[in-house]
């Protein structure tokens, strides 16, 4: 029996390597196609794609006008997903997202209710300026993200698979925003900060987007293939060294776990979902970078997008002008030794 198992393992390993190599090629083609339309912003494109490849949702944070919407619609095209967009506003109601029951009357005058699906029934949902909507409407979307189904008038409706939400949020200093509650932020696999473009990229944006012909992306894979890649990522082996690095990094970000700088500056730290997110996205990042196994570098590169929305600073640390990013950078530096 023992013999049988070891041969089986070797076969499985070979099969995983073969499918990982096919996934590497697909991901390289996806990157190339996105780059035809989105200039610069490599890190933003990478982290957003990693969230989707890992099967999760991403929160894109940045001022308006940085092509966040364009990035999402481009990803929809390139990944072959059916995509919808909702512009969040203060008067948006949960039914505007989920859908609602309408009354139908047939020719005999009999009345019945029919459910009309809302925009949440798409494979890639762009939730624009999510922090402008009321908490009730935000939580309708966030519950759908968590449970992959919705309930209207006691009826359950399953959301399509795959189902990904890419939400954009304005920096919180802007007026008329409702910050997302901590527990809801945790539902985003990654928070991706979208900064102003580099000079060269901004020059290319000016030249290429104001002419008569704009570059258009084409589809590289489809939803079925995306689901295969997502399943493969979950099968990729992660070495003990990398697992230990994930645990020690996440735990070092929690107050009361023996890290003096964290105890001083962090009010509350990341929960277990942070570790799960690192386990998934590190494998996706390895493939994205053309490798078959995740390394310590993947963990440290993903520390900020995975941890920053899952922890908060103490009042004293904020008063000193520190940011969560500074704290994470310090923890990564300690971990690298």
TrEMBL record:
Taxonomy, superkingdom: Bacteria
Keywords: Hydrolase
Record-annotated ChlI/MoxR AAA lid domain positions: 263-328
Entry annotated with the keyword Hydrolase: yes
Protein name (Swiss-Prot/TrEMBL): MoxR-like ATPase
Species the sequence originates in: Rhizobium soli
A single MF term (Gene Ontology): ATP hydrolysis activity
Domain ATPase AAA-3, chain residue ranges per copy: 57-190
Entry's EC annotation: 3.6.3.-
Any matching Pfam family: AAA_lid_2
PANTHER family: MAGNESIUM-CHELATASE SUBUNIT CHLD, MOXR FAMILY PROTEIN
Enzyme type, top EC level: hydrolase
Matching InterPro entries: ATPase_AAA-3, CbbQ/NirQ/NorQ/GpvN, ChlI/MoxR_AAA_lid, P-loop_NTPase
UniProt KW Lipoprotein keyword: no
